[in-house]
Design a protein that fits this description.
The structure holds two protein chains of two kinds.
Chain A (H helix, E strand, L loop, with lengths): L17 E5 L7 E7 L2 E12 L12 E8 L14 H15 L10 E11 L4 H15 L8 E9 L2 E4 L3 H4 L7 E9 L5 E4 L7 H32 L1
Parallel strand pairs in A: 4-5
Antiparallel strand pairs in A: 1-2, 2-3, 3-5, 6-7, 6-8, 8-9
Helix pairs in contact in A: 1-2, 2-4
Chain B lengths: L13 H9 L7 E3 L4 E4 L4 E2 L3 E4 L2 E4 L3 E6 L2 E6 L11 E10 L2 E5 L6 E4 L21 E10 L2 E5 L6 E2 L4 E4 L5 H5 L4 H10 L2 E4 L4 E5 L3 H16 L6 H13 L1
Parallel strand pairs in B: 3-7, 10-12
Antiparallel strand pairs in B: 1-6, 2-5, 4-5, 6-7, 8-9, 8-11, 9-10, 11-12, 11-13, 14-16, 15-16
Helix pairs in contact in B: 3-4, 3-5, 4-5
The chains are: A alpha+beta, B alpha+beta.
């Protein structure tokens, strides 16, 4: 049996219900929450501030530092707290996805810290984290060239789907599941994150990227809306 | 040379005046996000916080878009303080070197106050006699070179701050707290009977005879900060202060 109907009844190009909010953490310079259904990511931004230890400083421009972490109660089976091989990898790719949008030329020897915390996980956590981080960076008043939006595209059996959930990620029938997180810039449309877990044919990957680009545009609109509404409601 | 002499007028540097005026009527301006086109057309010039991309002026920061004449710029709502020449700021002594003091000014970089900028004789062997670590000073920015910031206290009203309390506000809201030509801060000072110095870096020093008055001034300032987008705010603050009087 092929995958003709999604487990949660969504359309193939529909993502889960999105919640985007800005400015939740008072003590941070900027913060944002972004969720895809049960996947909830909270991002806090601090800086620019002096970077210590000194040997990590860059005298030409400021440094962006990302830390991604899942809370121990974010998954059904308790996760051991603290950094792991997986979270370090995600921290790094998030940093790469965001580093091309922040413009820290005027802040040499400083650091901008981004802390992404997954409050609740149901697949696609890294893309929710990137979306939250981009909004939090804007909220913190960090100079940025543009925004970044991110989405995961899946190939479940032979069907391309937008925003993979945990059940789809674990789908084993037919060709199985392939998870492709990707991130696009809002203005130039450049790709800043592309990972792939599973198997896919080259022509299908092209289609997946195209689908991802369209979905990112929709997500960008939601991010934009959340940022624009922040100051008006106060 | 101490804060006793601080009266009105010191916050009214040319720059603050300018900023206070532009800080007005925030709600009429459009809120833009990074990467958004502020205005399009060859006749416009990119100002602070924007860049030119083809015909478009693109926002490089989250804030309010301000277009005055041909110049488009972004008035930020958040973000750290960046020192500028002539700013009056409040800082805390963090270290003493052989010829001056390192001052934390709530900005990405710390600033330097040299001994020669002190308007009286200082024994170089004992700099801590004049200012020691942890002391708070009101000072002025005299030089900004990328990440080197130099300060002076060689002017009326500047120097070590003694007594009173320090509060921190968003440095982007400082123009509103000062008001047009210092009107807002003047009102708060009069109504609460306090001495107030508003640093451009977002640190505010308040001193009065009684702690009640200091707290009242603090609340008034927080009132201004939380309602910075309202027009005719000075009147509202007046009402707020008078209501608290009873």
């Amino acid at each position: 049996m092929s995958y003709t109907k999604r487990v949660d009844g969504r359309k193939f190009d529909e993502f889960r219900e999105v919640k985007a909010e800005v400015g939740l953490i008072k003590n941070a310079d900027g913060s944002a929450l972004f969720s895809f259904g049960d996947t909830v990511a909270l991002a806090a931004v601090y800086g620019p501030k002096q970077l210590h230890p000194q040997h990590l400083q860059n005298p030409q421009k400021g440094v962006l530092r990302c830390i991604y972490d899942m809370l121990s109660f974010s998954v059904p089976e308790r996760k051991k707290p603290g950094p792991s091989r997986r979270s370090l990898e995600i921290s790094k790719v998030t940093e790469w996805a965001l580093s091309s949008i922040v413009d820290l030329e005027n802040f040499p020897n400083t650091v901008v810290d981004v802390f992404i915390t997954i409050l609740s996980a149901n697949a696609s956590t890294r893309v929710a984290g990137i979306n939250a981080a981009a909004m939090a960076l804007a909220d913190a008043g960090v100079p940025m060239k543009e925004m970044v939006s991110s989405v995961s595209i899946g190939k479940i059996d032979k069907q391309l789907v937008v925003d993979v959930c945990k059940e789809e990620e674990d789908y084993e029938e037919g060709e199985g599941a392939t998870d492709i997180p990707m991130a696009f810039l809002s203005r130039s449309g450049d790709l800043t994150l592309l990972q792939l877990d599973g198997e896919i044919r080259p022509e299908e990957l092209k289609k997946a990227i195209k689908l991802g680009k369209e979905s990112c545009k929709k997500i960008f609109e939601l991010q934009k809306k959340a940022l624009k509404e922040k100051k008006l409601e106060k | 040379m101490m804060p006793k002499e601080i009266k009105e007028g010191k916050e009214e540097s040319v720059e603050t005046k300018k900023e206070a005026e532009t800080g007005k009527s925030e709600e009429k301006r459009k809120l833009v996000i990074p990467g958004e086109v502020v205005v399009s057309g060859d006749e416009y010039l990119p100002g602070e916080g924007t860049r030119k991309d083809g015909k478009d002026i693109v926002a490089g920061k989250y804030g309010l878009a301000d277009i005055s004449g041909r110049l488009a710029r972004i008035i930020p709502l958040s973000g750290s303080y960046f020192p500028r020449y002539g700013n009056t700021i409040i800082g805390k002594v963090t270290d003493i070197t052989f010829n001056g003091w390192l001052i934390d000014i709530e900005s990405p970089y710390s600033a330097f106050l040299s001994v020669v900028e002190v308007p009286r004789f200082i024994n170089k062997d004992n700099l801590s006699d004049f200012l020691s670590i942890g002391d708070v000073i009101a000072c002025k920015v005299v030089n900004v070179k990328r990440k080197n910031v130099d300060l002076t206290i060689h002017a009326k009203g500047l120097g070590k701050l003694e007594g009173g309390m320090i509060m921190k506000i968003n440095s982007n809201k400082v123009p509103r707290v000062i008001g047009k030509e210092g009107s807002m801060i003047k009102l708060i000072k009069q109504e609460t009977g306090t001495e107030v110095i508003v640093g451009q870096n977002g640190l505010v020093w308040i001193k009065a005879d009684s702690i009640e008055n200091e707290l009242k001034a603090k609340e008034a300032i927080l009132f201004v900060v939380s309602r910075s987008y309202i027009e005719g705010l000075t009147e509202k603050v007046k009402e707020f202060l008078e209501a608290g009087k009873i």
